[in-house]
């Protein structure tokens, strides 16, 4: 018998969120920690980490991104095999998204989960690029700058 | 110092000591304490049998051969110490965020996310 409730639907972190994390944005990092502590799984596509790491090259950024592994409910989503790699290439080709955003889209599509983002405009533009619509949650506050 | 095992399994390398100067082959996973002194810790070293990838063993051997490390044990010790420092720094960076974030802003973000979540199709809530 378990006293825990059902596991909430995971949220897929995109590169904009991970870039903010890599930059050491306290609010975003704290937000992530709160969501994690609340028991909601956070799916982190491997290529989204790549995109964030490319945007912010420093040792601290690297250490912050590596620290994502300590989140209790983080789920890392790799590109597991050649089939997934080829499917990813198809999404890049079809959407024109960068590979890391395409990986986020692929993971969100396959797992039927919303994307957590700071860039709603991007996902609004690509929401209907795949067979099923992509859904997203924007956490940027009005007036926040990238 | 180092033994390489091949066969059908992935090639791995056994290093028979983690710390100390002399090395002796032992059965895998056997752990015992030695009387060797490790200056950095001021306490007895723990003797372990570990298995590492051949290229890492080769790298450690090259460091010893080049004189940049006294022993393979020292290479492993230094690597673990470096990993501990990195891990501590990473924890500190995340801890700093938790302490210094604007709680009101974070609360607004959580509320905003929850509001949007509630408006998603049931399949995505």
- Placed side by side, the strands forming the largest sheet of chain A appear as 3-2-1-4-5
Oligomer: heterodimer
How many strand segments of chain B?
5
Main pleated sheet of chain B: 3 strands, antiparallel
Question: Counting H and I runs of at least 4 residues, what is the number of helices of chain A?
Answer: 7
Gyration radius of chain B (Cα, Å) is 24 Å
Backbone structural class of chain A: alpha/beta
| Net shape of chain A | globular
Helix content of chain A: 40-55%
Query: What is the rounded distance between the termini of chain B?
Result: 57 Å
- How many E strands of chain A? 5
Tally the helices of chain B.
3
* Head-to-tail CA distance between termini of chain A: 46 Å
Strand content of chain B: 15-25%
Runs of chain B in which pLDDT lies below 50 for 5 or more consecutive residues are 1-10, 19-37
Provide the residue-averaged pLDDT of chain B.
79
Strand and helix order of chain B: EEEEEHHH
Q: Can you tell me the overall shape of chain B?
A: elongated
In short:
The complex is a heterodimer of chains A (146) and B (125). With 146 residues, chain A is α/β, with parallel strands linked by helices.
What does this structure look like?
The complex is a heterodimer of chains A (146) and B (125). Chain A is of the alpha/beta class and 146 residues long. Chain A has helices at residues 15-22, 26-37, 46-55, 59-67, 82-95, 99-111, 120-126, and strands at residues 11-13, 42-45, 74-77, 115-117, 136-138. In chain B, the strands form two sheets. In chain B, strands 1-2-5 form a three-stranded antiparallel β-sheet. Chain B has a two-stranded antiparallel ribbon with strand order 3-4. Chain B is elongated and about 65 Å long. Residues 1-10 and 19-37 of chain B have low confidence and may be disordered. Chain B has helices at residues 54-66, 72-100, 103-118, and strands at residues 2-5, 12-15, 31-38, 43-48, 50-52. The interface between A and B is medium-sized, with 27 and 27 residues.
